[in-house]
Each structure stands twice: as structure tokens, then as C-alpha cells.
Amino acid sequence: MSELSFLFRADKTNVGDWYCPPFRYFQFKPFLVGDILDQKFNLNSSKTVIVGGGGLGQPFFQSHLDRLEKENRHYNLIGWGVGIDFHTEQQGLLKKSSHELYGDYFNRFDDVGIRVFSEKQKFEYIPCASCMSELFHKYRDQKPSNGIGVYSHKRRLILDDEDAKKSNLLHCTNDGSDFEAKLEFLSSHEYIITNSYHGVYWGMLLNRKVVILPFKTGLLSFKYQPVASYDEVVDDSILDKAFYKDNYLEECRTLNVNFYSKLASNYNLL
Asked: Does position 77 have pLDDT exceeding 90, yes or no?
């Protein structure tokens, strides 16, 4: 049995969840992989358990985190690229100058690399490990062939099929597990309008100008925060404020490589 285990939301119908865990991008000694929702996943032989990435810091996952964080556990517990998401139907709550970005979801972890960035950092800032995919180098420098693309969270569509046809905008969702197809769509547009965390993140890594339609706090936790439209209206005044950050890909990759090196040394992961 392996002494190293990875737990994440193993959901092939959500491309961001499926491609966020670090074992896809870094070398480790033999390990086991499980879904955080699987209460029968055996951790008896584990000396180190790495959780993440993904927005696991939310009430839906609380009982599963509690199960891992039990006081008498025999393993080191690490979060890598984990996020916090407070969802709301009242967008006015997200307009406040400050809101809860951390909660207490990961307080009992031994080491936490969190994708949340704030001026006063509670845990070490480590962006989602999906930035390590070499596909970003393939698509980042391609010249966009379209103006505006819409990338929706599959459970909260920005456009339905009829709206997309009327607006003449190309539309994609985070449904499925075809990572390259999502990056190809995002890279083919100069502007990305999105309410998906990875729609924002991957769009920025590809040097595209992103506009967010926020319904959860995780969309407001980026180091270089994109312009937001709280009334879900995106006009020229909003698009004019959209930007991209040079070398964002390199910055995120460096943070992940350094975190990997630290963990590998401290927890005997190789």
C-alpha cells in the first residue's frame, strides 16, 4: 500500500475539477488517488494526504473535510491549490468592499497552499496546479480569431442556446473533461465573459482579457482581479477596463514549482 494519497473532487463532468490536482503535473513516489466524496477510500497506510485543488472550502464539503481533519489522524494533511467559495443569489453581497475569503475550512491542515489571494494572506498563496500544463504554451501565443467568447459554469449558464443565437456570441461551458478543447475556445477570443473560476484563471493564463459575472466569492479572490459586472450587463465601458497580466503563467508556475519542492523535502514525497 502507498504512503501517499491524493484526494480531489474526481468529477469528469467538470473540467476544472478534473484537471486541478497536482499529481497530473509533478513527479511523486507511488500514490493512491481518491474522490474526496468517497468515504470508503482507505487511508490506513497513508503517511501524507494531499487534498485539492478545487473549491473545496464550502459547506458542501465540510463533513468530508472534518472526516480528514480528525484529531487522532496518523497522516500529514496538505492542501494544494484549494479554494473557498461562498455562493450567493444576492449579488449585492459581493459588492461589499470586504467579504469572507477564508472561513475555517483548512485550519487543521498541516500545510496549506491556497488559491485565494488577499492583502493579508492567511495561508500560503498557491494558484491552481493546472497552470503546469504545457498546453498553455501551445495556445497562449496564438492570435485570437474572435472578439468576445462566453464561458459559463454548467450549473449557472450565462447564455442558453437561444440567447447565444440571438447575441451571435460563441458559448462554451466547463462541462466535460476535454481540457484542450476548453483552452482552444478561450484562446480563440480576445475577451472572455465568464462566471467559472477556471474560465477566469485559464483565460488569464492565456493572456486574454477577462470579465467576470460573480456569484461566488472565489471569483473575487484573484491576485490580479479582473473587472466585474454585478448586473450581468457587459458593455463597452466594461470591456474597456478588461486587461491581462503579462507573465501571469510564469508567475503561477513558479509558485507551484516552489511549493512542490518544499513539500517534497518536508514530507518525503519522492
From this structure: yes
Please tell me the distance from the alpha carbon of residue 90 to that of residue 80, in angstroms, as a whole number. 30
136 vs 21: CA distance, rounded Å? 16
Say if residues 230 and 105 touch (Cβ distance below 8 Å).
no
The confidence score (pLDDT) of residue 90 equals 55
Query: Residues 25, 151, 176, CA angle at the centre, nearest 5°?
Result: 55
- CA nearest 82: which of 41, 122, 43, 42? 122
CATH of domain 135-239: 3.40.50
Cβ atoms within 10 Å of 66's Cβ, excluding its own: 11
pLDDT digit string, tens, across residues 197-243: 999 999 999 999 999 999 888 999 999 999 999 888 899 999 999 99
Ordered strands of the 227-228 beta sheet = 170-173, 146-152, 189-194, 209-212, 227-228
User: Distances in Å between the alpha carbon of 156 and those of 64, 133, 146, 173, 194?
Assistant: 24, 27, 23, 9, 10
CA 211: distance to chain centroid?
Answer: 16
pLDDT in the model for residue 163: 82
pTM over 0.85: yes
